[in-house]
Amino acid sequence: MVYALVAVVAAGIAYLANQLGRQIGKRKMSILHLRPRHTSIFITTLTGMAIALITLTVFAFLSEPVRGLLVGVEKLRAEEAELRQKVQALQQTLQEGVFLWSIDQPIVHMTIPSGLPYERTRAAITSLLAQANVRTIMRNNTIAAEKGDAPLPVSCVLIDYDPEQIEALIHSLSEEQGVMGLRVLAAQNCLYRHKAPLRLEYWKVRKVFSEGEVVATRPVENNRSMMEFVRFIEDTRQAAVSKGMRPIDGQLGGGLNEQDLERLQGAIAHQKGKFELVAIANRDLYETSSLDVRVEVRGLEPPRSEGRSPYGGEGGVW
Hints:
318 residues
């Protein structure tokens, strides 16, 4: 249809210009001191140009695509050039940069009772966001050490989030019942030294271990106690994960403090023959809790000398 329309318009222009030229030639008109023959050619040319311009103007007025083609070409070229520059910059950034977090990757999480007062809920969420910022800085500084770059100060802010979402989350948690898991995730792929956009989500979590419940045990021979202790650590982590606790980057958080380790080493050193290591939950543990356990050393053989009570580490956090 477009080709047919253009052909008809072109034929019409040619016919009109030819007729006009003939009329001017017959009347032997002269413009700008030109001969009648040259005047005819000049008038015919101007008429053809005028008809063509009028035709394009009518098409542009009636058709949006034609109007965009006539007046928007330079704008489209400028936008294309700008987009090419952005693509090149992004490609260079991706080549030089390193992903800190992938989209929807969990960064930190916590367990929080629902129905708390507004200020306590806000404080808990603020603390969780601060942990996410610290983890992001630490991951940046690990990459900086590999690249030979200067480390970032702990005081810098490398996270970005929607304050309105935080307010809505606080009100939602106050209306829920039970124990909730609260998690911070990357809202998009986050690059080295770039701010990390975050989003928060929550859901009702189930209890995995009750306070005082045994999480894991491992029998140990005294001459292999250190090697078996390392295996016991992994046994405890795997037992917790298999029961439903959710790790972050393969870890369940926490750790035994120095005092607990000293007590544990002393208890192991005093054991004769076989004994077992027992990890016991210090509190109710949910899917998003840290693995808060104490480690007890229990003899499997009757003591040969004075009776010795089993060792119980206090406050050990795995």
